[in-house]
């Protein structure tokens, strides 16, 4: 399957956003299960994990998708 | 077909160098390179941070320069264009403006054309690297219009300087905003603590006030980091700005939350990190400012060369002196240069005499005399007399332009060490974010529970963080890691040093063709020197003249003996009509000794043996032993001396003359000769003496070899000459390894043999004849290129014909690489040491964490160290060159004034 540049960018965005959200969700669930954290810590921590995950994933997933699927 | 297509594409490839403004670090370099390489038709892209240039190899059929500009601007950088304002006479509205506009817009690199026929003005915005001002003017002229530049215009150097100054100014303004505000915010934050509490009003600690002071800082000077990182991120590219943006953003966000929602669990009102956000901006801007200053300073050398480009020329047209812009001088034009003026273009002197200071181009400190037939170089300074010369190379073809181009190209290349540093720095940013995430998770789930105490403080502050919750501590340490890890100095470390080094080399007439040449030169272990023309003068000269100890009885009277000068005079007379290099050497030798060389009445060459001639009515024979034997001349009296000279690598020629000739000089000159002439002229020649000729060693060769050895290098000599001659020269110079009897075609193979022994080899030789060996060597040094540097092969070009420049090249390269390594140490070493501290290594023991602002200070210190270290290179002189230096453009200007006054 070959994608044009726009489609590749869209697919990349979908992939890295999903993974980052999963990471944040995982963080949130762990805070629920493992300790007595405040809601601010849980939500704030999940947001920070999401942000850093996005920053890490955006420049890695985008070229990877472009390489694999064209565009 | 596919092969043909590939070949066609390869042939069609073009190269363009684009100026890129706004890059600040190694990650920016990768970002721009990646973006350019992503364009269809772009084969390769190399970006140099310090030079602020991108070299792009592309297929013009698939990609236009405009596409490159667009993609660079899309990712947040600028491609500054130049502007040319032309006065075009004779335009009529509605037609001419369209014709001119279309013609100019068709030129590659022309961005915009604005034509105002009412004011006869054509304003062209163009990329200097793609099209020249001269080409633009020529295009308009070819359409039939008179063109002249409006005013002096701005040349590339001025524009580049303005661009750099604008960047320095921008960062300076940012500093002037951020530092006072940052200082007030910091004082306000700590105003509760002694001794600040004693003299600072309490309202300074008002959180709303701190918010009001910090916010303009973040959205003002700090805005650039957010905008640039977003521009990169949306294309999947990261750079240092991202680290700054996340660091500043997180600190500011926590402060805002703790101000307006103090119970949110981020540490409350006592943990409003406004000062962290403010000082982060201040320190990062300080780092930016220092980097901008450094980049400007390290390209000083090339700007100095550019400053030498003369602006005006006096051309003789139709018998009248006409002053024209130097870039409008054409090949064949006759130019006039008065004392104190610069030579406008390259050429050959037609008439006049002067001494010209060429130090700015060749590094030669002593002015060079110029007379009819001598070559002059554009940009050099005429010192004493006036002369006229015919232009032979103009515009981009002049030596100065070639040198500037060569140095510029060298500065856009990357040394292997730099490519590695860039790669590491590029991946570092992702790694740092991953580390920040890992550190956050560790302190959130484990560290806080294990070690948190109410005594928690920030390092070097009295600031207690007892209200800090788990999220606040983990986030604080995570942000500190982001800031403290920033490898911004890494991006500057290598290119800044390389620019300084290549520029410094150019100052001394040493042109490195790339950063890789600098690195390779510094690593050289064996230097192979071509003999003829490199170590020796390359032309034979008379070294010894010996008279026969017992001259033959001559004609009438007792034997009066013969002097060495008389032997040489006879030999020179016999060779006067010869075109053989040895004969020419003998004639030159006699003239240098002030001997009067009479013409030969009869001259005959005896191929492979020598010559015979009649001089002043006497028979003279000059040649080898075989010739003497054939003519029955006894050479036994000088045979031992002859063999000794031959063992020294010299070519020995025996001189025999009929007796009366000998008598003629000793017995009172001409009269005696004439008296003896009629009957003695037919006497058989007898041995008169020997003349030894050899290719003599250059004055500086022995010193250079000694210096190379002192640098720890092994020195070898390569020559096509016979073993005996080669050994003799090598003995005199102290060279241990001699590669003799190597024909030109085998020189490269000899170099390869040395490389196979595991040696890094530099080959020094003539750039034309030794080209294959120079290409084979790890470093090929073409020596004595003169000013025609474009034709030279090799990795390093030594403009002057002085072997000491080989030593200087090694010294400059080593100094440059030393600088690179020191810079990388300051840049990477700092990161390696600071990251564990930032990640909270000290916390379990001292309950102290590094604050984001301290992290920013450390980061700025790293940049400062690299900057200061690089600037040291400005005053560097290779030890072999300690002495009078090439004049600065300012000195040239100073010296020009009185000369001009005297001339007028």
Report on the architecture of this protein:
The complex is a heterodimer of chains A (71) and B (904). Chain A has 71 residues and is mainly α. Chain A has a domain at 24-71. In chain A, 86% of the residues lie in helices and 0% in strands. Chain A has 2 helices and no strands. Chain A has helices spanning 5-34, 39-69. The longest helix of chain A has 31 residues, at 39-69. Chain A is elongated. The model of chain A has no long low-confidence stretch (mean pLDDT 84). Helix content of chain B is 49%, strand content 19%. With 904 residues, chain B is α+β, with helices and mostly antiparallel strands. Chain B is elongated. In chain B, the strands form 7 sheets. A 7-stranded mixed β-sheet of chain B has the order 18-30-29-28-19-26-27, with helices on both faces. Chain B has a 6-stranded antiparallel β-sheet with strand order 9-8-10-16-11-14, with no helix packed on it. Chain B has 33 helices and 31 strands. The interface between A and B is medium-sized, with 25 and 27 residues.
Lay out the secondary structure.
The complex is a heterodimer of chains A (71) and B (904).
Chain A: H1 5-34, H2 39-69
Helix pairs in contact in A: 1-2
Chain B: H1 2-12, E1 14-19, H2 26-37, E2 42-48, E3 53-58, H3 65-74, E4 82-89, H4 96-105, E5 110-116, E6 121-126, H5 133-142, E7 146-149, H6 156-189, H7 196-199, H8 207-219, H9 223-233, H10 240-260, H11 274-298, H12 300-307, E8 312-317, E9 320-325, E10 334-337, E11 346-352, E12 354-357, H13 359-362, E13 368-370, E14 375-376, E15 381-382, E16 387-393, H14 399-412, H15 416-451, E17 457-458, H16 470-484, H17 488-507, E18 510-512, H18 515-523, E19 526-530, H19 531-535, E20 536-547, H20 564-575, H21 581-592, E21 600-606, E22 610-615, E23 618-623, H22 625-630, H23 639-647, E24 651-657, H24 659-666, H25 670-680, E25 686-697, H26 701-710, E26 714-718, H27 723-733, E27 737-739, H28 747-756, E28 761-765, H29 771-776, E29 779-783, E30 796-798, H30 804-838, H31 843-846, E31 848-849, H32 852-871, H33 889-903
Parallel strand pairs in B: 17-31, 19-26, 19-28, 26-27, 28-29, 29-30
Antiparallel strand pairs in B: 1-3, 2-3, 4-6, 4-7, 5-6, 8-9, 8-10, 10-16, 11-14, 11-16, 12-13, 12-15, 18-30, 20-25, 21-22, 22-23, 23-24, 24-25
Helix pairs in contact in B: 2-15, 6-8, 6-11, 8-10, 8-11, 9-10, 10-11, 10-16, 11-17, 11-32, 12-17, 14-17, 15-16, 15-17, 16-30, 16-32, 17-30, 17-32, 18-30, 20-21, 24-25, 26-30, 30-32
């Amino acid at each position: 399957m070959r994608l044009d540049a726009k489609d590749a960018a869209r697919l990349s965005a979908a992939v890295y956003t999903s993974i980052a959200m999963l990471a944040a969700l995982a963080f949130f669930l762990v805070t629920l299960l493992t300790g007595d954290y405040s809601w601010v810590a849980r939500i704030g921590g999940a947001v920070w994990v999401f942000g850093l995950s996005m920053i890490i994933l955006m420049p890695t997933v985008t070229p990877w998708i472009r390489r694999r699927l064209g565009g | 077909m596919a092969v043909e297509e590939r070949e066609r594409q390869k042939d069609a490839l073009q190269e363009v160098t684009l100026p890129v403004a706004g890059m600040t670090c190694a990650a920016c370099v990768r970002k721009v390179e990646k973006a350019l390489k992503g364009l269809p038709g772009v084969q390769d892209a190399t970006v140099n941070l310090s030079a602020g240039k991108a070299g792009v190899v592309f297929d013009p059929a698939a990609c236009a320069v405009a596409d490159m500009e667009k993609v660079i601007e899309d990712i947040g950088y600028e491609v500054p264009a130049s502007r040319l304002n032309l006065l075009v006479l004779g335009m009529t509205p509605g037609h001419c403006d369209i014709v001119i506009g279309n013609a100019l817009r068709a030129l590659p690199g022309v961005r915009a054309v604005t034509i105002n026929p009412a004011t006869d003005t054509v304003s062209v915005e163009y990329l200097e690297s793609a099209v020249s001002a001269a080409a633009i003017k020529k295009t308009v002229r070819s359409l039939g219009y008179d063109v002249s530049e409006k005013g002096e215009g701005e040349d590339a150097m001025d524009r580049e300087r303005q661009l750099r100054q604008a960047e320095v100014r921008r960062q300076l303004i940012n500093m002037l905003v951020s530092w006072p505000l940052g200082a007030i915010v910091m004082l306000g934050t700590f105003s509760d603590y002694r001794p600040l509490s004693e003299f600072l009003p309490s309202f300074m600690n008002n959180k709303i006030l701190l918010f009001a002071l910090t916010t303009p800082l973040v959205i003002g000077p700090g805005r650039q980091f957010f905008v640039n990182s977003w521009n990169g991120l949306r294309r999947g590219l990261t750079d240092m700005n991202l680290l700054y943006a996340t660091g500043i953003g997180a600190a500011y966000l926590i402060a805002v939350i703790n101000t307006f929602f103090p119970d949110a669990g981020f540490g409350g009102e006592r943990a409003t990190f406004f000062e962290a956000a403010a000082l982060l901006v201040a320190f990062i801007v300080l780092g930016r400012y220092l980097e901008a200053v450094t980049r400007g300073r390290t390209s000083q050398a090339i700007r100095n060369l550019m400053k030498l480009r003369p602006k005006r020329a006096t051309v003789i047209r139709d018998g009248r002196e006409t002053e024209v812009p130097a870039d409008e001088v054409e090949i064949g034009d006759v130019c006039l240069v008065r004392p104190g003026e610069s030579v406008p273009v390259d050429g050959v002197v037609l008439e006049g005499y002067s001494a010209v200071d060429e130090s700015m181009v060749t590094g030669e400190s002593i002015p060079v005399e110029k007379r009819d037939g001598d070559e002059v170089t554009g940009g050099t300074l005429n010192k004493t007399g006036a002369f006229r010369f015919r232009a032979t190379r103009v515009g981009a073809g002049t030596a100065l332009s070639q040198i500037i181009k060569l140095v510029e190209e060298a500065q856009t290349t990357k040394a292997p060490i730099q490519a590695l540093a860039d790669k590491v720095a590029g991946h570092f940013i992702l790694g740092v974010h991953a580390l920040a995430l890992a550190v956050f998770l560790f302190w959130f789930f484990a560290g806080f529970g294990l070690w948190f105490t109410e005594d928690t403080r920030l390092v070097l502050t009295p600031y207690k963080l007892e209200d800090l919750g788990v999220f606040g501590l983990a986030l604080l340490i995570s942000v500190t890691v982001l800031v403290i890890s920033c490898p911004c100095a890494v991006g500057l470390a290598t290119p800044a040093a390389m620019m300084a080094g290549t520029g410094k080399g150019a100052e001394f007439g040493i042109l490195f063709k790339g950063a890789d040449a600098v690195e390779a030169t510094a690593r050289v272990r064996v230097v192979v020197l071509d003999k003829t023309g490199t170590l020796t003068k390359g032309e034979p000269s008379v070294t010894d003249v010996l008279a026969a100890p017992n001259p033959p009885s001559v004609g009438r009277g007792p034997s009066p003996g013969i002097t060495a000068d008389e032997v040489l005079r006879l030999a020179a007379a016999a060779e006067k009509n010869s075109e053989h290099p040895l004969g020419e050497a003998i004639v030159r030798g006699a003239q240098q000794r002030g001997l009067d060389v009479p013409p030969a009445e009869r001259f005959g060459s005896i191929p492979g043996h020598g010559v015979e001639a009649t001089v002043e009515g006497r028979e003279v024979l000059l040649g080898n032993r075989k010739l003497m034997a054939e003519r029955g001349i006894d050479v036994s009296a000088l045979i031992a001396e002859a063999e000794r000279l031959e063992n020294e690598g010299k070519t020995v020629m025996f001189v025999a003359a009929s007796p009366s000739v000998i008598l003629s000089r000793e017995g009172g000159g001409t009269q005696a000769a004439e008296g003896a002439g009629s009957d003695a002229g037919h006497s058989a020649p007898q041995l008169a003496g020997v003349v030894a000729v050899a290719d003599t060693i250059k004055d500086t060769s022995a010193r250079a070899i000694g210096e190379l050895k002192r640098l720890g290098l092994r020195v070898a000599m390569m020559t096509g000459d016979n073993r005996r001659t080669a050994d003799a020269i090598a003995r005199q110079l102290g060279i241990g390894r001699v590669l003799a009897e190597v024909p030109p075609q085998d020189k490269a193979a000899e170099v390869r043999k040395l490389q196979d022994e595991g040696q890094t080899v530099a080959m020094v030789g003539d750039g034309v004849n030794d080209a294959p060996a120079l290409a084979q060597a790890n470093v090929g040094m073409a020596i004595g290129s003169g000013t025609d540097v474009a034709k030279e092969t090799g990795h390093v070009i030594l403009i002057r014909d002085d072997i000491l420049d080989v030593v200087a090249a090694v010294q400059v390269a080593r100094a440059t690489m030393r600088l690179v390594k020191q810079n990388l140490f300051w840049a990477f070493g700092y990161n390696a040491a600071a990251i564990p501290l930032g990640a909270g290594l000290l916390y379990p023991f001292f309950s102290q964490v590094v604050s984001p602002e301290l992290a920013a200070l450390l980061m700025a210190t790293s940049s400062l160290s690299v900057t200061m270290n690089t600037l040291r290179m400005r005053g560097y002189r290779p030890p072999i060159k300690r002495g009078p230096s090439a004049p600065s453009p300012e000195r040239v200007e100073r010296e020009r004034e009185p000369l001009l006054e005297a001339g007028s």
